[in-house]
Design goal:
The chain is an alpha/beta fold and 307 residues long. The chain has 2 domains: 122 residues, Rossmann fold, CATH 3.40.50; 165 residues, Rossmann fold (3-Layer(aba) Sandwich). It has 12 helices and 12 strands. Strand 9, helix 9 and strand 10 form a beta-alpha-beta unit.
Length: 307
């Protein structure tokens, strides 16, 4: 009987674990659970006889894969997968998948919450502003951006997107404006929200020139990936442009320096919070289990991210 390992340093909710087990056991697989582990050695031991692996933000490198000679598939329960060494997986003929869209509404709702907190001056008793009538620019138009656009539309915001990774027609079909360049998106909108993945092209792509070009009083939101920001450029631009604000659920590497230089204009959550809802937790976990069953039973590779 093939063994499926759920390895989560940051555990799924009990409801998610129960649902994952139900799906996998009904399909005839044995389920192993490794939660809240503190040493990599624990993961290396647990993965030794696993045919499939479900993870969240856990680091899965070549050493982990080498310790798992029977491993055929790794599913990251979530959209981002930069915690998995795709090159090593491909070399070892291991399929890697993500579960796109399962956390999207949770992240989108967090963006709105952070924006309200920001424009109401952290609820400090002073007069703030409203989202209604503001221009929201979305960099990329994947699942999170689409959900954010849906919610923002209900607030009466004017929505546009530049999507270097997606078909612009999807923006038009959704009823929003297409912006022809990243620069124009930054220059024109009151709020710019980042939704690109971490790739060699996007890493450190958001830096001084783009941020300094933003309109007066603009807000930059990042709930995507930390390393798409050129932190030196961000801090330089925002030191010169004291009207700008940066909002994120990802603390900067230069967090202490940012707090010192930017003060209340740097808004962050204590840890990455985008997908931290019960619903998203369950949705991503169940999707991962279903994808593993479909792959092991029928070879389905719909959400494969390595080739």
């Amino acid at each position: 009987m093939s063994k499926i390992l759920i390895a989560t340093e940051k555990p799924f909710s009990p409801d998610a674990v129960g649902g994952i087990k139900d799906i996998l056991q009904f399909a005839g697989y044995e389920v192993k659970l490794l939660e809240s582990y503190t040493e990599k050695a624990q993961l290396l031991e647990a993965v030794a006889d696993a045919a499939a692996l479900i993870v969240r933000s856990d680091k899965i490198d070549d050493e982990v894969m080498a310790a798992a000679p029977e491993l055929k598939i790794i599913v990251r329960a979530g959209a981002g997968y930069d915690n998995i060494d795709l090159t090593a997986a491909t070399q070892r003929h291991i399929v890697v998948m993500n579960t796109p869209g399962q956390n999207a509404n949770a992240v989108a709702e967090l963006v709105i919450g952070l924006l309200i907190f920001t424009i109401r001056n952290r609820f400090n008793g002073t007069s703030g502003t409203e989202l209604k009538g503001k221009k929201l620019g979305l960099l990329a138009f994947g699942a999170v951006a689409q959900n954010l656009a849906r919610i923002a539309h209900g607030f009466g915001m004017d929505i546009s997107s530049h999507s270097p990774l997606d078909n612009p027609q999807s923006i038009i079909d959704a009823g929003y404006h297409v912006v022809e360049s990243t620069r124009a998106l930054f220059e024109d909108n009151h709020i710019v929200s980042l939704h690109v993945p971490s790739t060699p092209t996007t890493r450190r792509s958001i830096g001084y020139d783009l941020i300094h070009s933003m309109r007066k009083g603009a807000i930059l939101v990042n709930t995507a990936r930390q390393d798409i920001i050129d932190e030196e450029g961000l801090l330089r631009a925002m030191t010169e442009r004291t009207d700008l604000r940066y909002v994120s659920d990802l603390k900067l590497e230069a967090h202490d320096k940012a707090v010192e230089l930017l003060g209340d204009r740097y808004i962050f959550t204590p840890k990455k919070m985008g997908a931290q809802t019960k619903e998203a937790n369950v949705n991503a976990g169940l999707a991962a289990a279903k994808q593993i069953v479909a792959f092991l039973k029928d070879g389905v590779k719909t959400f494969q991210v390595n080739k």
